[in-house]
Amino acid sequence: MAKVSDLLKNPLKQMGLAISARDRTLNLYVWDPRVKVLGGVQKHDFAVFSLDKKCLKTFHPKEIKYIMNNLDPKVHGKVMMLTDQKISKGVTMAVGEHCVRCYEYIIDYFENDDTTDEQEMFSRLGFEEEWDTIPEAFKQRILAVDKIVLERYADWFDYNVFNSYIKCIRHRQELEAAKNATLNSQLSTLN
């Protein structure tokens, strides 16, 4: 909580408001414009507060492109920036242990009807853009989570972010199944 307090006291903090596409609640997004490098990736301390529920939803470092996904007026209702956007943009994403671990929490978020799942949906959509650069061990963990989500939660919601997320992970599962079938076919011809 000390880090959240420090972020809120920071006179340079950036803020925006948006109505969540998932549950139509009003959220306050606060981030530090100062960049910190974690695992070779430029990130910003980032907090999301539910103003309707009067609680802190999440606090962890995020890349600026994923922070800004939460403030996209094409996705969320009634977006308003409360501060100027003087932000230094990050470099190409490098999906690491922290990113994958955070994504694995999406199952708990769905089980507990926690709207923080939306943050991880955006992260997963970003993973797709960087798929070819993700280490194989991380890909397997991501695919395992995707499979569970498709089996248990694919029909739970019907809104734009969730539908894009489900479409994305379903497509990736199909691509991986086709790739594995091709590899198995090639291996069987060698034997």
Report on the structure:
The protein has helices at 2-9, 64-69, 97-104, 106-111, 117-129, 136-152, 160-190, and strands at 14-19, 26-31, 36-38, 41-50, 55-62, 77-81. The protein contains 7 helices and 6 strands, in the order H-E-E-E-E-E-H-E-H-H-H-H-H. It is globular. With 191 residues, the protein is an alpha+beta fold. It has 2 domains: 1-91, no CATH class; 94-191. The model is unreliable at 85-93 (pLDDT under 50).
Order of helices and strands: HEEEEEHEHHHHH
The N- and C-terminal alpha carbons lie at a distance of 59 Å
Annotation field: number of helices:
7
Main sheet record: 6 strands, antiparallel
| Beta fraction | 15-25%
Label the overall shape: globular
- Gyration radius, to the nearest Å? 18 Å
Can you give the helix content as a percent range? 40-55%
Overall tally of structural domains? 2
Given as residue ranges, the uncertain stretches (5+ residues, pLDDT < 50) are 85-93
Distinctive features:
2 domains, globular, 6 strands, 191 residues, single chain, alpha+beta
List the helices and strands and how they pair.
Blueprint: H1 2-9, E1 14-19, E2 26-31, E3 36-38, E4 41-50, E5 55-62, H2 64-69, E6 77-81, H3 97-104, H4 106-111, H5 117-129, H6 136-152, H7 160-190
Antiparallel strand pairs: 1-2, 1-6, 2-4, 3-4, 4-5
